[in-house]
């Protein structure tokens, strides 16, 4: 009788263990570990810093060339995105991994903390632009409700815009084209800075496929390094949305599977 009881107990333990293992596997399939290397690249890679410095150095040389041809800088302007162009949001992405959460969870907390650090080279470049009398506009898709927190963050870094009119946040639509047109009403935009291709021109707006985006880049190849200054962002963006065909209803596990299917091996 004791032997039978022991066997029943053992079978129960094995069943519970198997159930727990399946739960662990399920949790592993939907966690954020797939973002680990992407986020580490932004926080620990000297190459990421080098790319940012390269972008801002290139922009400085380009600015000097433009000013040599246009000595009156009063109507000239540059337009910059903020996140992953001027400000580093990788601590939020790291929090998502560590807490197994995803946007928008925790984003309010991060925004109101107003503690994002600047990307390498950003402050020095913006100070140089200001010294040359060129206007600086920030066009960001942060929501309007974060305007005060964003201004506080920029003030802490010493790169706040001259007025709220130079900080254009998202209101009704994600496209930045209407806001760029607003800047163009009183200024000539000589350079645009961003980590997402839609930061530069409306041709990248909408749900473009991976191939469409690649083809458009080739068609605009002369603009990059001249008028368009691009920054690296491996953590999120339209490039990643395009990989999953902009299907945001996919489960985390399905998204990872879709991403794997897009890989090209040999």
Could you please describe the fold and organization of this structure?
The structure is a single chain. With 266 residues, this protein is α/β, with parallel strands linked by helices. It has a single domain, classed as HAD superfamily/HAD-like (Rossmann fold). 50% of the residues lie in helices and 12% in strands. The chain is built from 11 helices and 7 strands. The strands form 2 sheets. Strands 5-4-1-6-7 form a 5-stranded parallel sheet, sandwiched between helices. It starts with a helix and ends in a 5-residue tail after the last helix. The N terminus is likely disordered.
Summarize the structure.
The protein is α/β, with parallel strands linked by helices and 266 residues long. The protein contains eleven helices and seven strands.
Q: What share of the residues lie within helices?
A: 40-55%
Q: Please report the total strand number as a whole number.
A: 7
Structural class: alpha/beta
Q: From the structure provided, what is the oligomeric state, counting identical versus distinct chains?
A: single chain
- Gyration radius from CA atoms, angstroms: 23 Å
Tell me the name of the CATH homologous superfamily: HAD superfamily/HAD-like
Q: Return the CATH class.
A: Alpha Beta
Mean pLDDT: 91
In the predicted model, the low-confidence regions spanning at least 5 consecutive residues are 1-29
Percent of residues in beta strands: 5-15%
SSE ordering? HHHEEHHEHEHEHEHEHH
The largest beta-sheet arranges its strands as: 5-4-1-6-7
CATH architecture: 3-Layer(aba) Sandwich
Tell me the overall shape. globular
| Largest sheet properties | 5 strands, parallel
CATH fold title:
Rossmann fold
- End-to-end C-alpha gap: 61 Å
Q: How many structural units, i.e. domains? A: 1
How many helical elements? 11
């Amino acid at each position: 009788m004791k032997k039978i009881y022991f066997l029943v107990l053992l079978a129960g333990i094995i069943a519970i263990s198997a159930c727990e293992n399946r739960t662990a596997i399920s949790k592993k399939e939907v966690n954020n570990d797939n973002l680990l290397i992407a986020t580490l690249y932004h926080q620990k890679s000297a190459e990421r810093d080098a790319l940012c410095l390269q972008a801002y150095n290139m922009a400085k040389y380009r600015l000097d060339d433009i000013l040599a041809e246009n000595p009156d800088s009063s109507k000239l302007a540059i337009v910059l995105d903020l996140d992953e162009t001027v400000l580093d949001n990788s601590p939020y992405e790291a929090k998502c991994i560590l807490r197994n959460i995803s946007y928008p969870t925790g984003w309010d907390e991060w925004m109101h903390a107003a503690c994002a650090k600047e990307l390498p080279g950003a402050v020095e470049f913006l100070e140089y632009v200001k010294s040359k009398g060129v206007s600086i506009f920030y066009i960001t898709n942060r929501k309007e409700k974060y305007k005060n927190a964003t201004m506080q963050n920029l003030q802490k870094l010493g790169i706040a815009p001259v007025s709220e009119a130079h900080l254009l946040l998202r209101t009704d639509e994600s496209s930045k084209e209407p806001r760029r047109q607003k800047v163009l009403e009183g200024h000539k935009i000589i350079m645009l800075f961003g980590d997402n291709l839609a930061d530069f021109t409306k041709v990248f707006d909408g749900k473009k496929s991976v191939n469409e985006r690649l083809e458009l880049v080739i068609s605009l190849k002369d603009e990059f390094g001249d008028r368009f200054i691009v920054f690296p962002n491996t953590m999120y963006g339209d490039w990643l949305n395009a990989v999953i065909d902009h299907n945001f209803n996919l489960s985390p596990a399905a998204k990872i599977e879709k991403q794997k299917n897009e890989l090209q091996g040999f």
